[in-house]
Design goal:
Rossmann fold; Dna Ligase, domain 1; alpha+beta; D-amino Acid Aminotransferase, Chain A, domain 1; 3 domains; four-stranded antiparallel β-sheet; five-stranded antiparallel β-sheet; single chain
Length: about 300
Amino acid sequence: MSKLHVAVLMGGWSAEREVSLMSGEGVAKALESLGHQVSRVDMDRNVAQVLVGIRPDLVFNALHGTPGEDGTIQGMLDLMDLKYTHSGLVTSVIAIDKELTKQALLPHGIRMPGGHIVESESLHAGDPMPRPYVLKPVNEGSSVGVAIVWDEGNYGNPIGRDVEGPWKHFDRLLAEPFIKGRELTVAVLGGEALAVTELHTKTGFYDYDAKYTDGLTEHVCPAEIPDEIRDAALAMALKAHQVLGCKGTSRSDFRWDDEQGLDGLYLLEVNTQPGMTPLSLVPEQAKYRGMSYAELVQKIVVEAL
């Protein structure tokens, strides 16, 4: 393909800023190694003016979290008539919202945990469902702000007002039953599910720190799981990618209760802007499939064009 001027959009002001900067720098170096001209753009409130000034052929969206993953940037780029990588406005709006994602995927037979939205203030009066359960922000990625409320937890019963947790930072949370078992994840690229990775964390839960701190999580790729579980996870991830209308790459996260067989496999969420850092799962699965990091980046660029 011809050489392009690519603006790599990274950073921003979300809770995932530092991860986005790492993703963006990796992408920028890969694009340069392929001979493309690269403009690194650390997003601020003047991002539209910056993009007008540099006039790129393509924007590589390396942002994580809001506003880069929730449709805001996608809408702006659409209005500016700029091509960009990853999913578009409507898909981004739905996939960042865990409740909307359930509404979109459940009718298509994709198994997800039950649950409902709760007002954070109500948690100090009592539990929204039997313990153990999970509380998570409705519109955050990378497991930002996720808490598991156990019978013998340190949050109190009911949850104490002065105890640190997502209820202190978000007005509304999604409450879901805790699915015991194993952490699995599947990347989808160019309409193909790549592999299943199992995640063994030293923290007991694949939270933000476990995802992005070297040494806290062991990645087993391919996962050492029965063929029927592997095939089901690959199929569910691809179907979720297609139903939501994802572009470029996505990553679906699962919990598998291995005591329940196929009935114990649950899709938790779909990430439309998965990480591209040295510890990230999409590059790892692409490598397992024989694709270098630069080839992965090039494939995402080609689909965006």
